[in-house]
Each structure stands twice: as C-alpha cells, then as structure tokens.
Amino acid sequence: MPLIILMLAILALVFGPQYWVKSTLRKYGKDRPDLQGTGGELAEHLIERYHLEGVSVREGQEGEDYYDPEGKIVSLSASHFRGKTVAALAVATHEVSHALQHQEQNPGFMRRQRRIKTAIMIERFSVLALMVTPFIFLLTRLPQSTLITLLLGTSGMVAALWVQLMNLPVEMDASFNKALPILEEGYLSSQDMPGARKVLKAAAMTYVAAALASLLNIGRWIAILRR
Predict the structure, then answer these.
(1) How far apart are CA 27 and CA 171, in angstroms?
(2) What pLDDT score does 151 carry?
(3) Residue 44 a catalytic site member
C-alpha cells in the first residue's frame, strides 16, 4: 500500500502541473467577440509599438507558442493566433515579451540561449551514445562499457532538466514583469485580468511541468542502471 501511495504521489507531482496548464488554457480559451482583436493582431501591434525591428508573427501548429530569437519569429498556435480569447491575448503578449527581453539583451534571456545550445549539443551526443551502446558491448563484452555509455546517454536528460529549471526565472519575468503590466494598460478589462494572470502563470509553468517529466525520466533510467 505505501508503494502504491508513493507511485500515485509521483504521478500527481509530474502530471498534475501539465493537467493544470492545459485546463487553464482551455478554460480561458473560449471565444470572446467583445475583445479588441485576436492574439495574432495583438502580437503585431505590440511589435510595432515597441519597435521590435525584424520581428514577425506566424501561425504555428497547436502547441507551437514560442519566440525564436534566431529568426526573430513569434510563433502562435492556431487557436492563439486566430482566437479572440483571454488565453490568446495573454499568450501572445507573453511571447512578444520574450522578443522584448531579446531586444533589451536581458542577461537571463541571453544566458538561456547559450544554455539551450549547450544542452542541444549534449543531448545529441547522449542520443549517439545510446545508439552505439549495444555495438560497444558486443565488441568488448565488458559490462562496464554498457554502464558508461548509458550514463553518457542519461546526460542528455540531465541537460534538458538543467535548461528547464534555469529557464523558469526568464519565463516568470516575461509573464509578470512584462506581459502583465502591458495587458493592464487596457488591452484587457479588470474583470479579465485574473484569468490573464492564471494564463501567464500557466505559460511560465510549462517549464516546471517539463522539468518534472524529465526528472521522472531520469529516475526511470537510474532504476534501469541499478539492475
């Protein structure tokens, strides 16, 4: 019984934030014809307002809400690009806030970009290590070789977790130091601001959910290595 309770607690810890983020976006993603415009229109307006030179907005697939600093692209999922919803306006403002961080050369944002590039390199190396593990074992017949390559393989997961945790302050800054004050200027009514705050919190907490999922994955690999 204690083991079952522990497993349920771990599952709740890992998947609870993911469920909360999705349910929050769904709750405030209902169409509101009374709002001033769509998420895409607000993003374009803010880019012009803050003179974000070279930054453009595009409609992405569902779940593709991000700012690409390499191409200077604000990507909004179809529901947020076309939607007249509280969620659409809040998410659009959050992503444009990352473009503002980029323009200001925000130290946390710039460190994030360097961390992401490092993590990608480590992750690619770890994937390669996992792919060659069976061949190394066949050639050497040494159990230690398998252990070493598996440890190298898990390094990619650790790197992903590191980036996700370090990114949280950058996400919180985009949501609450930039996007929230912008929306309070009149883009949303005072009645809609509590919902916007929840959406902005959800936008930042996606990294917490991803970090917890990575942590569970690392734990699974540690359990495999201990066998």
Answers:
(1) 21
(2) 65
(3) no
